[in-house]
Design goal:
Elements: E1 2-6, H1 11-23, E2 26-31, E3 50-52, H2 58-68, E4 72-75, H3 82-87, H4 89-110, E5 115-119, H5 144-161, E6 166-171, E7 174-175, H6 184-197, E8 203-206, E9 212-214, E10 216-217, H7 218-231, E11 237-240, E12 245-247, H8 248-259, E13 264-267, E14 279-280, H9 285-291, H10 299-309
Helix pairs in contact: 1-7, 2-4, 4-5, 6-8, 8-10
Length: about 325
């Protein structure tokens, strides 16, 4: 498979590129800025197969697609941090919705007949009335990030209705090695490792630890994206999730057990969000039925890899 990944330098993008290359697929990638090429040098991708293109620049995106000539494009480039989107909702909407439009238009023009996997987010659901969430649940986002992803889905669905081969992935929370330290799981792991090393007092700073979320290892998530690319129905949307709800507090307790240090948990006001979904758990039954995908990496392995990435051991 000849694949193009927008946002190849991001958390999931790097893992997706690694998985595809391990299978023998040809991988091209798009980064937003030239200096971000350095972030993927360890992936072993030829520099000539990495393109610099901000997804808001339609001409640059078109040039990248024309050069790559992909059979499948994985559109991962996005404003993906919820607090960041809240700070600048206009930018999140532009990047996530208009950027999606630019990618679809570029593929239509320069790689006609190929497939696009548009990666959305379960944040688009908001606070669902029924759990677990299935794909027919209405999109009622509560935050700017979720709204921007819902808008991107509207764009993708409209193109699908016009006969374009686009399929949407709707991932729930995912984590694993390589995730930015400002996301909750690696943030906890980083703080705990610092406490274990004695470079930080035994107090851990957190936000609201009561929400329940559906976490999947990022390596299973990118396997789902590949399965969707190969077996998903054109125009369809698939939840990518484990179906297991974990409170943020329980995740913290699991990480504390791995690192083995007693801590005092301090809730910081600046980490609290103005609107928080209390429980979000999904069903991946449609994805399993269409592709056979199911998550395989044990939660204990995900946690171990998180703390190892934070320098523990």
């Amino acid at each position: 498979m000849r694949a193009l990944i927008t946002g190849i330098d991001g958390f999931a993008g790097r893992h997706l590129a690694t998985r595809l290359r391990a299978r023998g697929d040809v991988v091209h990638g798009v980064v937003r800025r030239a200096e971000r090429r350095a972030a993927v040098v360890d992936l072993g991708i030829d520099d000539a197969m990495l393109y610099v293109a901000d997804v808001l620049n339609a001409d640059a995106v078109a040039a990248a697609v024309a050069a790559a000539r992909p059979e499948v494009s994985f559109h991962l480039a996005a404003r993906a941090f919820v607090p960041g989107a809240a700070t600048d909702p206009a930018a999140a909407l532009q990047v996530n919705a208009l950027g999606t439009l630019h990618v679809l238009a570029a593929v239509q023009r320069h790689a006609a007949g190929s497939r696009v996997v548009v990666v959305s987010s379960a944040d688009a659901y908001g606070a669902p009335a029924v759990l677990p969430v299935t794909e027919d649940c209405p999109l009622q986002p509560l935050n700017a990030y979720g709204a921007s992803k819902a808008a991107a889905e509207v764009v993708a669905a409209q193109w699908a209705r016009g006969g374009f081969d686009v399929v949407r992935a709707r991932p729930f929370n995912h984590t694993g090695p390589g995730q930015r330290a400002d996301f909750v799981c690696p943030d906890f792991a980083r703080q705990l490792v610092a406490i274990a090393r004695g470079t930080r007092p035994p107090r851990l700073t957190a936000g609201d630890v009561t929400p329940v979320r559906d976490f999947t290892d990022v390596r299973d998530v990118v396997d789902a994206y590949i399965a969707i690319a190969e077996h998903g129905a054109s125009g369809a949307v698939y939840n990518v999730c484990s179906g297991v709800g974990r409170s943020i507090r329980s995740i913290l307790d699991d990480l504390i057990a791995v690192v083995g240090v007693p801590v005092e948990v301090v809730v910081a006001a600046d980490r609290l969000r103005p609107s928080e979904v209390p429980v979000l758990i999904g069903s991946a039954a449609a994805l399993h039925a269409a592709t056979g995908w199911t998550p395989h990496i044990p939660w204990e392995q995900t946690l171990a890899d998180l703390v190892a990435a934070a320098g523990f051991g």
